[in-house]
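Quick note —
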Amino acid sequence: MNKIAVIGGSHFASLKNLVITHSTSVKTPYGEPSAPLSYGILGDQEVVYLPRRGSQEPMQPHQINYRANIWALRDAGVQTVIATAAVAGIADFFSAGDVVVPDQLIDYTYGRENTFLGESEVTHINFTEPYSEQLRQQIFQNAEKFSFPVIAKATYAITQGPRLETAAEIERIARDGCHLVGMTGMPEAALARELGLDYACIALVVRKAAVHESIDEFKLSRGEKWVEDLVEAIILDETQKST
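Predicted structure written out below.
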């Protein structure tokens, strides 16, 4: 049975119905991942959970060992990766609590270890569509089944951090065609593609980009629950397909 990995981002602490069986500290050729891998069962599905920014003091986005994280998941027998992320909305129609499944991204990061390929290897992976369309469709099917409101098309801008963006930077990113902005989507997605993993992102809008406004805590809390319930629904759906 295909193991599913869930990479937990900010505003996503765990899956409430995931029964953790054990946790394992691992080492990879690229160092240690952000935290020990937590193995568990949801339904009959094997799940590996990894908090992207660590389980103790949160790591800064540019300090995360993305290569170790993805390599460790692949070595654990994972083929499918559901990544969650907290983002800011750029487009006017986004507000706190919205759940978005981006279909494209633009990488504004720099200085991050962003490939498994060595200097002597000349290989160009196809990254035209950075997210697994099959997995995205599975997300949409489960969202529709349980009436979770999900926005199905958006371009995700990944900035270096750890500071937030200036108003001028957000204007530029918007002109580039981006609808969301966050700090952890790359090189994670590209590394998953290099290892042949099915990878998709479920993003929760937690605020408006470069805008000082009060956040509707009810909508944000509701969005957090939708993300958790949606991830669990996808995992249980995979269990049914395997039986």
